[in-house]
Specification:
Length: 159
């Protein structure tokens, strides 16, 4: 007796490893379930914050320090939230997979491995967002520290 694990989300239908509709990225994204959608929104938010703060720190001149510093730490914060949501999505998918396995009885190792692979999708997305946000945060924080040290040197030299 064969069992098929079926995943169905918007725009894509996957049975085993055969998926219909969408590109590979969208199929993987929709297999991640509702957590992947939230992670997608967080990725867009981190990207938007990163672009805004990059423009403020590298292009604009003459902004006060408080305005420059505002929002830089939010990039890292939302990256951390993405990682936590990624793990939460993995635990949720693992729980669902284990419930299906316990009801089905004997399953092939291939189906179990596919279930584990699907549960890791949100973890990979969440950690990817965290790594990117941490790199951007570090670069922006270094630039901010550099600007503030030059500003302090300019004030002490003028006294």
């Amino acid at each position: 007796m064969e069992y098929y694990i079926e995943y169905q989300y918007i725009g894509s239908r996957c049975v085993d490893d055969r998926c219909v509709g969408g590109t590979t990225i969208t199929r993987i994204f929709f297999l991640g379930g509702p957590y992947a959608v939230v992670l997608g929104v967080l990725a867009v938010a981190v990207f938007a914050l990163s672009v805004k703060k990059s423009i403020d720190l590298f292009v604009r001149t003459g902004l006060e320090w408080a305005r420059l510093a505002r929002g830089v730490d939010a990039i890292l914060f939302w990256g951390c939230i993405a990682a936590v949501l990624g793990f939460l999505g993995q635990f949720s998918a693992s729980y669902k997979s284990l419930m299906v396995i316990s009801q089905a009885g004997m399953l092939s190792p291939q189906l179990i491995a596919e279930g584990i692979a699907v549960s890791l999708i949100t973890t990979i997305f969440g950690l990817g967002i965290l790594v990117i946000s941490a790199i951007v945060w570090f670069a922006l924080k270094s630039r901010l520290d550099n600007l503030t040290s030059h500003e302090k040197e300019g004030r002490t030299a003028g006294v």
